[in-house]
Amino acid sequence: AVIAPTTSVATITINADGSCILNMSTVDMGQGSDTIMAQIASEVLGIPTQEIKVNHPDTDLTPYDMGTVGSRSTYHMGNAVKLAAEDARAKIEALARDVGLPKETNYPLSELFQRRYGMQAGNIVGVGTFIPPYTAPSSGSGHSANVTPFWMVGGTGVEVEVDSETGRVRITKLITVSDCGALVNPRIAETQLSG
Fold this sequence. Notes:
The chain is built from 4 helices and 6 strands. The chain has 195 residues and is α+β, with helices and mostly antiparallel strands. Strands 3-2-1-4 form a 4-stranded mixed sheet. Strand 5 and strand 6 (169-179) form a beta hairpin.
């Protein structure tokens, strides 16, 4: 089971020049979480992934995350990032309405700020907090219908040759499988499995 209950918070700042900064406390230790979180924000905001700056965690500056443990980041922090991006998108849409643009007008973000403030000024901050539903186990039975948002399922099969005289073992075939659900970035998932 993934760790639960848990909380993840993310903020996304849209600057007056149209740049985008994602703040979160998930630690990228090689698992590709910075890339995945930028992809999630990109999809919601319509900003190219490579243009989203992901700030590295600093407990003095970045919002709360329970921890980068237990295979929880893409699901928990990913949902917080999605909520922060949706909040920012709603504020962008409100800014566009405030400056008199018709709904779904595709103006560059920097131009929205220019129209609103008469110069390159201001910013928008979207905030997202994700806390999945959780039901504590019963004190009597220890059971719960909702103790974790998901279960991790995987397995590995190995075929080996063993030299009975020397004890030398040689792996002839190794297969690893994982039920990953919907993949945000298939290449990163494959790399994690092979790693």
